Amino acid sequence: MTTAAASDHKATGHSLAHAHWLAKAAGLAYSDPATVTAKVGEWGFDRVRHHHTRHTPPFPLQDTQAYTAASDSMIVVAFRGTQPVEIRDWLSDITTPPWPGYGGTGFIHFGFGQALDSVYADVLDAITTLRDNDQTLWITGHSLGGALAMLAGARLYFEDPKLLAGGIYTYGQPRTCDPLLAAAHNKAFAKRMHRFVNNNDIVAQVPPEPLLHHVNALHYIDASGRIRDSMPLLGALVDRVKGLTADALAPARDAIRDHSITKYVDAIGKNL
């Protein structure tokens, strides 16, 4: 694969080609460090830092993993996700206090706050060290990684608005924050936040409102694989039923199957 085919390091705005490549970058975060280093090298990134910390949320010991890759024109931070059952455990706990939102605005889920906090200093150091040519900065992630990408962008912006020159792309992220922080994020990242949801993806539906909320900028992949930038509520409900009935033998598996990062990469690729 050539560098040009993998990514456009000069990209400054939204395109499906850029979304497709960043979905691949999010998927790569599940790989071991040696694989990550080799692949981003093929993509034209000559410097990479790996981030791995351990922390103890209300559930068993968890890892937060991410990588930061840099070229002369672009820096990408990609957060690793987790399995749907694990993120369900995180989000079903209601005994933990809310974590303060960034910029003194609202709040976020405790588990997400702790996970990001455990790795944030190292990620910030990588960004500031590798950013030696005024590169654009893009943050991406799938599942839990999508939640951390969205929140990392918010924290970076509220601490230094000039730092995040690029945008955020997430795939199958859960709801992350209260309405106050969601509104502040929508304003700060207008046209720079892109949240992809694949039909019945179960993780994108938890936890239910009003416990936590999504930010805007939705790109919805319907049951036929078409990407829609808007979808009326009734139309979305009908489309989700269509997705559930696509597998007559096991319709319930659709919600888990739709969460796969491979499904996101393939669906976006077919829309190019």
Automatic annotation (TrEMBL):
Residue span(s) of domain Fungal lipase-type: 76-209
Alphabetized InterPro entries for the sequence: AB_hydrolase_fold, Fungal_lipase-type, OBL-like
Lineage top rank: taxon: Bacteria
One GO MF term attached to the UniProt entry: triacylglycerol lipase activity
BP terms from Gene Ontology: lipid metabolic process
PANTHER family per UniProt: ALPHA/BETA-HYDROLASES SUPERFAMILY PROTEIN, TRIACYLGLYCEROL LIPASE OBL1
Name of the protein this chain belongs to: Lipase (Class 3)
Species for this entry: Allokutzneria albata (Kibdelosporangium albatum)
